[in-house]
Known about the structure:
Radius of gyration: 17 Å
CATH superfamily of the largest domain: Hexapeptide repeat proteins
Mean pLDDT: 95
Oligomer: single chain
Number of strands: 25
Strand content: 25-35%
Amino acid sequence: MNAERKLYVYGASGHGKVVAEILRALGLDFEGFIDDGLPVGTPVLDRTVMGPHQFLQSRGNTCAVALGIGANATRERLAARVRDLGATLFTAVHPSAIISPSARLGSGTVVMAGAVVNAEAIVGQGVILNTRSVTEHECRVGDFAHLCPGSTLGGQAQFGRRSQLGLNASVIHLGVVGDDVTVGAGACVVRPVDSGQTVVGVPARPIVKRS
């Protein structure tokens, strides 16, 4: 990161605290939190809330922002706001994560402790690769997706934009998951999942809505 840019975490709830501690583990100092729902000066860890997004209006081109928002669609919206204000999205990778030198991570992505990203995987912008998640070789992960703790994408799997892979869930080798999909905790995806679906179970099946 450019040493002249001040670093902030957008989001001061639990997820934002984890992101802040990744920055600490990397030996990076950060100024504090941006949060649209907490009063200025609210203490969070050993920092405070500096203000809502308007705080960046006159400072944007001097700032870098790590995304500390867990909800995928909200994270996408706020990332666009950060860019519009002239700030840079910071990509935070915990030092215990294992990232292949041939893998690619998009801007604003956060990779948490113990996560693995293997050869030639391509991870989009604003993605969360949560604790101990595995993104195998040649996977494609869409922008603002979330791989929850302990989840696994098998080799060459495709995982859509804003989709969420639940705790300890998995997608088999060559599996395809569309956009805005929720895969329930512990589920195993063995056949393609269309965009917008919620799937659960082993093998994963869509939830049928009752009239």
